[in-house]
Amino acid sequence: MSELTYSRAVHALAVLLTIAVFPLIWVGGLVTTYDAGMAVPDWPGTYGWNMFAYPASTWLFGPFDLLVEHSHRLLGTLAGFLSIGLVIAAFRCDDRRWFRWWCVGVLLAVIAQGALGGARVVLDQRTFAMIHGCTGPLFFAIATATAVMSSRWWLRSQSMVGATRGVAWLATLLAATSYCQLILGAQLRHVTAAVSHTSFMAFVHTHLTLAGLVTLLTLCLVGLALASRVCEPRIRRPAGLLLLVVVLQIGLGIGTWIVNYALPWSETTSSLAGYTIAAKGFWESLIVTAHMATGSLIISLACVVALRAWHTIPARHVNE
Amino acid sequence: MLRLPPKRNQNSSFTRSARRWIKLAAGLFALSQVTGCDVPIDAFEDNRIFAKRLELTDSVELELVRSDVDSILIELFGTPDQPLWPEFLQSNEQTSSLVSIDRLQRAAGAVRSDEEDVHYGLYREHCILCHGIAGNGLGATSRLLNPYPRDFRLGKFKFKSTPIGSRPTRDDLRSLLRHGIAGTSMPSFARLPEDDIEALIDYVIYLTIRGEVERGLLMRATYELDLDAGERLTDSDQPESADVALNQADVKSNTINHHTIELVSAVARKWLMAKAHVLSVPAPPDDLPIYGSEPTTGAARERLAESIAHGRELFQGKVANCASCHGPLGAGDGTVTDYDDWTKDWTTQAGLDPLDKQQLRPMLKLGALKPRHILPRNLQLGVYRGGSRPEDLYTRIALGIDGTPMPAIPMQPTNPLGLTESDVWDLVNFLLSLPEQTDGESNQ
Fold it and tell me: A181 and A317, same structural domain?
């Protein structure tokens, strides 16, 4: 097999894109937390201005909702520009034909994501907000995958044996389950008045069940990765990190419920009994948004493990 | 010439995995479009549970008047997107002050904000997920909350400065919105601008009055009309009073008759009267220190100890009878088999046993929430939902908590066997000392 050429530019752009998308997800989360989706009623302009020419005095020092929504749009365009750069770099520097077209896919995905965000505003539909919120983490996972697949390690580990089939399947299953979990979370977060209390309860119970499943899958994955002799540190490390992030996410999930709805058995201690939820409070908003963003991080980390594992499985294992 | 298909990549485990991912993502995307769709909120939900109660207790067929009730309510109060305030209330000097139509319209409709940071659709932004579109307490999250969110339509509010049966004042509602209710899902909206709070108060009053009118119309259809003979709520009739005749002159409608105007005016008047019923909390006796304010002299400390001891006697005595529900030391371990009025409204008052699932089934199908016992508060925690200031506790003791088994305490001179104002302050001192006292007792 001929040695593929590593392109620093492509990898750097892919990493930059991944780094840029994570705060984009955070700010997008804040848009939902603060119900700021309609703080700018037009799109792609901002109150009639070209979005890049919108006066900084109003954007940065005006209403918080406007700051959050407009920043989200600007960060979105940054992701768009980085994706364009990635496509150009890939066509100029990367030998792999499929990877070039993958990068084109990345660009189309960011355009589609922007259009979904625009549709949410133009049509004033919360359903689009929910879909936009679900596809955002998917794009983060795609950007992460691009960074993984453009790395020097990826190109040089073509014939390396670094994982077992079990690890690869578990990581894939974990990524898929986490994504389902994120979609359920989006249903809870973007719930509208049209949803009945029975449906909402069903969503909550399914969300809790999937949380248990995600935890179980993570434990199995980490256990298997650590127990396997062939597993690469490049797989073990993100798997270990995944466990920490899942533990953090469970804590954030409990926190999210408390700061949104309080505990149903609040009288157990005086501090719980005395806690008053602050609507749109700083800590409340931070916890809820962090729960959403950490969900995206879990999906992306699971993708990293899955991609690296599938990439380093011996061909005979796959074909068995 | 035979063209061979391109050679497939042999180590394409990644490609196959990617294909599976894409299929899964497409499936999930489709799922997300099916669920949680934006159904336009173009109408308030009917009070079908109350109608069912009347049907069960009085054997009437209220389906016959459903369209009448709907058309009357839409004509008087509009829709969730376009709320109205009855014209005859707007033109009346007193009732026009109850609700501002501008604020009402700002609180209604879809959520948005502008460059000046003015927020619109405030009710949907802050309240709808728990209290529901019609303020029926049956919002999406309601089933999982404890206590359940309040159903405004009965016109009952727990924490207020007016007696049981009276409506709260704007100040009471403002205080609830500002401070929230500790230990429950009701948040504090302290961060909201004053205008937003005022708009939300207007909208809560609006939903309450609308809900009370709806109940009134259903009751009138049940008890005053011969539905089988074809009588309807929209039938025109002659007004009995000059006031109503004057109001009716303003109403150019075939739907709103003088009975409806009387009903709406009576409901609105209850809100106007609230201010006249506010309890003025008397100052504690001059020589009585209040627990928490450090007594400076030995005599004051002795006086406080006496007050707490007397408060304890009253708490456990027969007149105040607090211990029967809250337990002898206020741990909330007394009677726990009662329900609040919002639950009784569709269970016991409909002749249904709240513990009999079979009997409750028709109501649960209509969206009613499973009955829960109302639990007396554990006063040893030192957290009081109606406010923690001594005067808040005095108010709670003197006025009770509307809609719950917590009664107003019998007071002199209305009840010669009742408590004096000074007794109530002793009870307040005992309550305030409970968290520390019970800590001490458990240590001993």
Answer: yes
